[in-house]
Design a protein that fits this description.
49 residues; mainly alpha
């Protein structure tokens, strides 16, 4: 996930959680958190050289 994609998801998450005019969508909040969590995890290469 690129930095721009992460930023867009963070902005959307912030809007969902903090904008009183936006209806809360818990499924979308959890989906965004899962995507951001996966993006933040280090990638481990498997196999032997």
């Amino acid at each position: 996930m690129s930095d721009a994609e992460i930023e867009r998801r963070m902005v959307e998450l912030d809007r969902l959680l903090n904008d009183p005019e936006v209806r809360m969508d818990p499924h979308r909040v959890w989906a965004l958190l899962a995507e951001l969590s996966r993006a933040a995890q280090p990638v481990y290469l498997s196999g032997r050289a």
